[in-house]
Write a structure and sequence with these properties.
This protein is mainly alpha-helical. The protein has twelve helices and four strands, in the order E-H-E-H-E-H-H-H-H-H-H-H-H-H-H-E. The two termini are 27 Å apart.
C-alpha cells in the first residue's frame, strides 16, 4: 500500500471506546496485519477506557507516558497500563522495576516545574468540555501558558469557547500543528480584543491564500474578505466544492460498517523510544504480546 504502519492520532482525547472498537476493527478488516497505532490524550478522561477497548479490538501499538507526567493533556500512565495488561495475560516485555525507577527519576523534575509554575494545574486535570471544544492536548497547554504569561487566565473559558467558532470560520482545518496554534492564537486574540477578527494574524491570512493546503469545508466569506484573500485562491476554490467532505465522510462510515469479524486474539506492540520501526509480530506461541512505546 506504500506505507508500513497506520497511526490514529486522537489529538484531543475525544475518541470513545465505541468509536475505537468500530474504527480499529474496520481498519484491521481492510488492511490485515499492518501495524495499527493509537495515540490519544487523557484530556477528557476517555483515554484509559478507549485504550483498553482498542487493545481488545486488535490495536498493535499504544503510546503512554511515565506516570508522574501522565494524565491531563498527556497520555495514560505506562505503569498503570503495564499492571492492567499483565492481568489480561498480555506480555509487555517491560521490566516493572525499571519503569518504576524511571518514574522515580522524573518525579523531582516534575515538581521543579510545578513549583516554578511552568506546569499549570489545568494542564494536568480532566476537562470533559474538551469533548465539545475538541481542543488537542498540546494546543490546550500552549493556550494556558500564553494566557498565564499575559495575566489573562480569566479569559480562558471564553477563549476555549471561541475555538470551535474560529475553526468553523476556517473551514474545519484539522487541529494539528501548525493549524492548531493558528486557530488557538486567533481565538485568544478575538477574546482579548473584545471583537472577533478585529486583528487577523498573518498565519490566518496565509491560510486563506492556500499556503496551508485545502480547507475541508466552506470557509467564512466575511473572514475571507477581512483577510484580503483572492476570490479564486486555491483554498477558497476547493473549500466551496460541496462533494469533498462528503467523500471523506463516506469512506469513514464505510470503514465502520466493514467491521464484521470479531477477533478473539490479537497481538499488541508498545515500542520504546529507542526503537525506529515496528518490530516483527511474534509467531507461534499462541499468546498475546506487548512492548511499550513510552512517550
Amino acid at each position: 500500500m506504500g506505507f508500513d504502519t497506520i497511526c490514529l492520532k486522537d489529538m484531543a482525547g475525544t475518541m470513545s471506546p465505541y468509536e475505537a472498537e468500530h474504527l480499529i476493527k474496520g481498519i484491521k478488516d481492510a488492511v490485515g496485519d499492518m501495524p495499527l497505532i493509537l495515540h490519544t490524550h487523557c484530556t477528557t478522561g476517555m483515554a484509559y477506557m478507549t485504550v483498553t477497548k482498542a487493545i481488545e479490538s486488535g490495536i498493535d501499538v499504544i503510546d503512554s507516558a511515565t506516570s508522574c507526567f501522565s494524565g491531563g493533556t498527556s497520555q495514560p500512565a505506562t505503569e498503570t497500563m503495564f499492571y492492567a495488561l499483565d492481568q489480561y495475560g498480555i506480555e509487555t516485555g517491560l521490566n516493572e522495576k525499571v519503569i518504576n525507577e524511571v518514574n522515580d527519576f522524573f518525579k523531582p523534575v516534575k515538581q521543579k516545574y510545578v513549583d516554578s509554575g511552568r506546569i499549570n494545574a489545568k494542564s494536568m486535570a480532566t476537562d470533559a468540555q474538551a469533548l465539545v471544544y475538541k481542543v488537542p492536548g498540546g494546543m490546550l497547554s500552549n493556550m494556558i501558558a500564553n494566557l498565564t504569561d499575559m495575566k489573562a487566565m480569566d479569559k480562558f473559558e471564553a477563549a476555549l469557547a471561541e475555538i470551535p467558532a474560529v475553526r468553523k470560520d476556517l473551514g474545519y482545518p484539522p487541529l494539528v500543528t501548525p493549524l492548531s496554534q493558528m486557530v488557538g492564537n486567533q481565538a485568544v486574540t478575538n477574546v482579548l480584543l473584545g471583537q472577533r477578527y478585529k486583528q487577523v494574524s498573518k498565519e490566518v491570512k496565509n491560510y486563506f491564500k492556500g499556503e496551508y493546503g485545502i480547507a475541508p469545508a466552506p470557509v467564512s466569506k466575511e473572514l475571507e474578505t477581512r483577510s484580503s484573500a483572492k476570490a479564486a485562491s486555491p483554498l477558497t476554490a476547493a473549500s466551496r466544492t460541496p462533494n469533498a467532505p462528503a467523500r471523506t465522510s463516506r469512506r469513514q462510515r464505510g470503514a465502520g460498517r466493514s467491521c464484521k469479524k470479531r477477533r478473539r486474539y490479537h497481538e499488541l506492540h508498545l515500542l520504546s523510544r529507542s526503537d525506529h520501526e515496528v518490530p516483527h509480530r511474534p509467531q507461534g506461541e499462541g499468546r498475546e504480546h506487548l512492548q511499550v512505546f513510552d512517550r
